[in-house]
Design goal:
The structure holds two protein chains of two kinds. Chain A is an alpha+beta fold. Chain A is 34% helix and 15% strand. Chain A folds into two domains: 73 residues, Ubiquitin-like (UB roll); 68 residues, [2Fe-2S]-binding domain (DNA polymerase, domain 1, Orthogonal Bundle), CATH 1.10.150.120. In chain A, a hairpin with a 2-residue loop joins strand 3 and strand 4. The chains are: A alpha+beta, B alpha+beta.
């Protein structure tokens, strides 16, 4: 079957021939590889995308189910050549190491700040509780978003 | 370019000592950075692996016909299809590329498949029919030891073996099997070159070691294989050994098409080595004042089915068995066993983690019996520069600021908490605040930097000066730690130019940089980069008879004499192979100059525990660490915080559960990893005492954070609960039952 949906603001269509996750569909069929596959079972958040306004693990969504929906991946978050505020904050505090968790964290944090421009530390942690980072120990990630929250307050 | 009459400062921005941002950071933040998983070429096939469902079995027959019969399958290869050396291994080539007559661990590769897409390849791998005769697995390390199934025994005897102290502490300690769990699983792409050779782009910490092993097993000339650094999603030791590398090249050459393979998470848990589980018996003897008089230890680590780096991990556990303390009478007996458990090898801390958990528990018990403050006991026995290592007798020549580390940590205030992220067990109704008991614990650990025991440890780097700035060429692997940042900083500072870029080149274009492990690349590849940059600058200045070089060009007596555009009309490059001070193998008593350098750290953990439910929240972990010179403070802090988090993981949640050699939790639902809600607050003091042979006096910083953080957290839980807690990870039942 063909699946048509809105991907990062533009129409997208792809062929779905077997039960396949949205993540594999994005990466292998549409060759949009910013979202990462790390656990295949919704535990690590590396594949986080915004589906019709809600952050989801794209490895847990069937590709066929996004027909008519709107999907935003990390590739759809920055404006032109610039970083969005979440990305800039992470770059400045050293919140990126290997970077494999980064697209998922950028997606989850962008969603958080779009709803809550000055979250508390607990709110930041709760919003990112589904995103595992194995490199940073989370310290720089928390500092990035605490700083951003202060700037927005 | 116009000559300026006023010369700018020769100090460059984003040189050493500054928190320069990662050059790949923006690409990673935008999702544009290419990881090994993201590679794609036209006409590419997908690979998959058939793995043993048994930890120990004889392979009676393999029928590949059902797999080949599936549409879209291009190849199914078994042990018979390996044209060269049938086995591989970092230290000993004892692990079959594909199992032939026997499988020795659960998940061992038996066949590999190439097909037109990932799903078909996996279906075909499952369709290979392997007939096994199951054999009894050997899974108990003590049984293996008594049967002589060992990879190495280490024997250390130093000082008067009849010495004794009036205060005696004996203990038995265990460490469970931890997994590196890098977020990126194993992945790679092999592309045939059309002339019988192959290019490999795969996850790795050491492309030259991969190259050597691929060449041997494919039966090719070295120049026919090129191993290229690829984008890496973390490593922590898991990528030092070959896993899919030879398989990919076999499939690519067999099919004549590019082949890509990406492990799923469950496969990744069987596809790479783990941290060795350990059993450790200790006896400390001290005098009434708390001076260590004698330490005896027996350390058993289980290497699993194949050698990997077990011999070196065991040696490390034994050499650092006493910790950073002086003691004149020491004996250590170590054994690394061979079993049918999953193979174990490198993980951050490499043997020192296991020993630290034991020696620090012993030191705390000793302090308790003596009625001493635990830090005062450590300070009293502190091993410092100029002292002989308690185990090997090697006199420590490089700085080792042990007392400064202890005193700095002791002086750090414990700040008031700002905002609690939750009680033990989470933010629900699991526990109530009045049940929570706070505990504080300390620990300290030491480890070698670089390769030891006479290994010819070197790193090559090439520095070029081009119109676009300095370029550093290297085969050293960036795994996320920031080598790509720090090598550029070193080149900027040493050359005097503001633009510098690191280019990762393949094995045909540069000699080895050695492994990205043992906390060694900043010192080794950084050392090569510094020497190459300095020599290149000196050559350029000599050539143009100048006295300074910057972005404008060559200067003499404050005048710009040759603009950069003319300087770079000529080709400027310098290649350096850097070696650290030589080491030697130990003698029969384990004595000798076996290490090139050392680093240490101390940690203070604060925990909240519900003793009835056995639940723990690690509130904060503070640290002082011996870093030599922090070349990029932000990166150093990143290594410290990340390393502490992995240490906390081993302390309270991370363990691969084995049952008769089978991993019961090979997935992220059941192998628990710390989340942001588990992250303690961290305050780190960087203790800079320059004098090491690393560039600008820098020491490696990656491993010390992981070594004693585990021990400190468990010490804090003991403080809160009064429990002995002799095993990590500490489980709720260890506290509550």
């Amino acid at each position: 079957m063909m699946v048509s949906f809105t991907l990062n603001g533009s129409p997208a269509t792809g062929r779905v021939e077997r039960p396949v996750s949205l993540l594999d569909f994005l990466r292998d069929e549409l060759e949009v590889t910013g979202s990462k596959s790390a656990c295949e079972q919704g535990e690590c958040g590396s594949c986080s995308v915004i589906l019709d306004g809600v952050v989801v693990c794209s490895c847990l969504v069937m590709a066929a189910d996004v027909e008519g929906s709107s999907v935003t991946t990390v590739e759809g978050l920055e404006s032109e050549e610039t970083l969005n505020a979440v990305q800039r904050a992470m770059h400045e505090t050293g919140a990126v190491q290997c970077g494999f968790c980064t697209p998922g964290i950028v997606v989850a944090a962008t969603d958080l700040f779009s709803h809550n421009p000055s979250p508390t530390t607990v709110e930041i942690k709760e919003a990112l509780a589904g995103n595992i980072c194995r490199c940073t120990g989370y310290g720089a990630i928390i500092r990035a978003f605490e700083t951003l929250a202060e700037e927005s307050a | 370019m116009t000559a300026r009459t006023e010369k700018r400062s020769s100090r460059v921005d984003e040189g050493i000592g500054e928190s320069a941002p990662r050059p790949d950071g923006i690409a990673k933040l935008k999702g544009e950075f290419e990881y090994a998983q993201d590679q794609w070429v036209e006409g590419m096939l997908w690979g998959a692996t058939t793995r043993s469902p048994h930890p120990h079995a004889r392979v009676l027959s393999i029928d590949v016909a059902p797999a080949l019969a599936i549409g879209g399958v291009h190849a199914v290869l078994t042990a018979d299809d390996v044209p060269g050396r049938a086995s591989f291994g970092l230290e000993h080539s004892d692990q079959p590329v594909l199992a032939g007559e026997r499988v020795n661990f659960w998940g061992e590769p038996v066949a590999v498949v190439a097909a037109e897409d990932d799903a078909t390849a996996r279906r075909a791998a499952a369709a290979v029919v392997v007939e096994y005769e199951r054999l009894e697995p050997l899974t108990d390390p003590e049984d293996a030891d008594s049967q002589g199934e060992v990879f190495r025994r280490v024997r250390i005897r130093r000082g008067d073996q009849s010495a004794s102290g009036s205060v005696v502490i004996e203990g038995f300690y265990e460490v469970g099997m931890q997994d590196q769990a890098p977020l990126g699983t194993e992945a790679g792409l092999a592309v045939p070159d059309g002339h019988g050779g192959v290019d490999l782009y795969a996850t790795s910490q050491f492309v030259h070691a991969d190259h050597e092993q691929v060449v041997a097993s494919l039966g090719l000339r070295p120049d026919q294989v090129r191993a290229h650094p690829a984008g890496i999603g973390g490593a922590f030791g898991a990528r030092e050994d070959v896993n899919l590398h030879i398989h990919l090249c076999l499939l690519a050459l067999h099919t004549g098409q590019p082949v890509k393979m990406v492990y799923h998470r469950s496969e990744s848990f069987t596809g790479h080595v783990h941290r060795h589980p350990a059993r450790m018996w200790y006896r400390h003897e001290a005098d009434e004042e708390g001076n260590l008089v004698r330490v005896r230890a027996k350390i058993s680590i289980d290497g699993g089915a194949y050698a990997s780096t077990t011999a070196a991990v065991l040696a490390n556990a034994c050499y650092f068995a006493v910790g950073p303390y002086n003691c004149e009478s020491v004996s250590v007996d170590g054994v690394g066993t061979r079993t049918n458990n999953p193979p174990c090898g490198a993980m951050r801390g490499f043997g020192a983690v296991q020993a630290c958990f034991a020696h620090e528990a012993q030191m705390d018990r000793l302090a308790d019996v003596l009625g001493m403050d635990p830090l005062e006991l450590r300070r009293k026995n502190a091993l410092e520069s100029g002292d002989p290592m308690p185990t090997t007798g090697q006199v420590i020549e490089t700085p080792l600021p042990t007392v400064e580390v202890i005193d700095s940590l002791a002086a750090m205030p414990i700040p008031e908490e700002s905002e609690r992220a939750g009680l033990p067990g989470g933010s629900g109704l699991t526990t109530e605040e009045h049940h929570v008991v706070r505990g504080i614990g300390y620990a300290m650990g030491i480890k070698n930097l670089g390769f030891s025991e006479g290994f010819d440890d070197f790193a090559q780097a090439r520095v070029l000066l081009t119109p676009g700035g300095a370029i550093v060429e290297t085969a050293a692997i960036e795994v996320g730690q920031g080598l790509v940042t720090v090598l550029a900083q070193i080149a900027r500072s040493a050359m005097g130019v503001s633009r510098a870029e690191v280019r990762h080149v393949d094995t045909s274009r540069i000699d080895s940089a050695g492994s990205t492990s043992a906390s060694r690349q900043t010192q080794m590849s950084g050392g090569a980069t510094l020497q190459a940059s300095s020599r290149l600058r000196a050559r350029i200045l000599e050539h143009f008879a100048g006295d300074d070089l910057n972005d404008d060009g060559v200067w003499r007596d404050g005048e710009l004499v040759v603009p950069m555009s003319r300087v770079t009309d000529e080709k400027w490059e310098e290649t350096v192979t850097f070696r650290h001070p030589p080491t030697s193998p130990p003698d029969d008593d384990g004595q000798g100059v076996v290490h090139a350098d050392f680093a240490l750290a101390a940690h203070r953990a604060v925990v909240d525990v519900d003793p009835e439910l056995g639940l723990v929240t690690v509130v904060r972990v503070d640290t002082a660490q011996d870093v030599g010179k922090a070349l990029n403070p932000q990166s150093v802090i990143g290594q410290i915080e990340g390393g502490i988090m992995q240490g906390v993981g081993l302390a309270v949640m991370e363990e691969l559960i084995l049952e008769d050699g089978v991993i019961r939790n090979p997935n992220f639902t059941d192998y628990l990893l710390p989340t942001i809600l588990d992250a303690p607050d961290v305050e780190a003091l960087l203790i800079e005492q320059e004098g090491s042979w690393g560039p600008f006096g820098a020491k490696g910083v990656g491993e010390p954070p992981t070594i004693s953080s585990t021990a400190a957290v468990v010490a804090a839980i003991r403080d809160a609960t009064g429990r002995a807690l002799t095993r990590v990870p500490v489980r709720p039942q260890d506290i509550a039952l």
